[in-house]
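Revision sheet: structure tokens.
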Amino acid sequence: MMTPKAVKLRVIGEVQGVYYRQTCRSVARSLGLVGSVRNMADGSVEIRAQGDSDAIDRLLDWAWVGPAGSSVRGVESESMPFDNTLADFLIQPGPGH
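Predicted:
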């Protein structure tokens, strides 16, 4: 049985310009998650994801590693309300874009 979970993650480190968002989208989609990922003005990456709690946990584990070339120093996680309107996992424009 699926246990739904929705989280917002803030990934800190060398995570922009290393295909972090593209790889995150691929990983999230392969886990059956919906949501979005975007670069933030402070150099971090924000991930909003929802789906099965086991899949969310696997995405969180991946977020600490990231793609080759990234250097993750921290991942902050907080729960979010579930949004039933989401149907895919997308790359969103960051602030100022």
